[in-house]
Write a structure and sequence with these properties.
Layout: H1 8-11, E1 22-29, E2 33-40, E3 46-52, H2 79-90, H3 95-102, H4 106-113
Antiparallel strand pairs: 1-2, 2-3
The structure holds zinc ion (ZN).
Length: 122
Amino acid sequence: MPFVGIGDEEILRCRKCCSHNTRVTVTESREEVTWRYCRCLDCGERFKTVERYAYAKRAPLNPPPILKGCDNYNSRFVPADIVAIRSLSEEGLSGAQIALRYGCDRSTIHKIVNYKTYTDEY
Ligand SMILES: [Zn+2]
């Protein structure tokens, strides 16, 4: 695929034999960067070019706030649950036992008990 606005020969010159007889074999585009895997038709040398935007993509000015804890739409708990889960854990119940009671994964319980999630509820 040819470059737009730049002469092919300026960029796609073989690193080994300086031949202009090269081809882009694969183009991989990501958000900020484009890789081009190239091959020299004369000597078989393979090389890669990296094209990156000089300026990062502008972030939206007013990103919607991410709702935390029980306010999050995916939350299955109410604040009272969080309090109960933490006190059950203090009473010595294991994460798995509490998870069974609330129908969730024990890692979820673990994160609640250790204040990794639901940090505003207590
Ligand atoms: Zn070459």
